[in-house]
Amino acid sequence: MDIRKHAVEQTAxxxxxxxxxxxxxxxxxxxxxxxxxxxxPGSKEYAGAQARQGNRLxxxxxxxxxxxxxxxxxxxxxxxxxxxxxxxxxxxxxxxLTGRDMLVAIYSDHxxxxxxxxxxxxxxxxxxxxxxxxxx
Length: 136
Known about the structure:
The protein has 136 residues and is of the alpha+beta class. The protein has one domain (3-129). The protein has 4 helices and 3 strands. A 3-stranded antiparallel beta sheet has the order 1-2-3.
């Protein structure tokens, strides 16, 4: 048996949930789900995000000679990583920001930290990226 038949998908879509664990929608009639499409741990993009995260830490160590991070620095590092792992999004807004700037702002915002938490949990679970059996 070719083991590659167990390979995972490169991306998966996460339908965001609010703090009450309810699915989030951008409209009242719930026809516009708020979703984020993420690169998974089996993708080159995820590996690249991990490498960039490690490089940022190494650069910091070289400059400052210490590895201590403030909570704010840690949140920024995490936000950068999650933004690097984000393929796309739907029905998601954050003020006037768009693209990567918006993603970093969302993932850095402590008042909506539950979003970064669920994104991090989702991308770190290989099962979320398993290939679904094809139906005939």
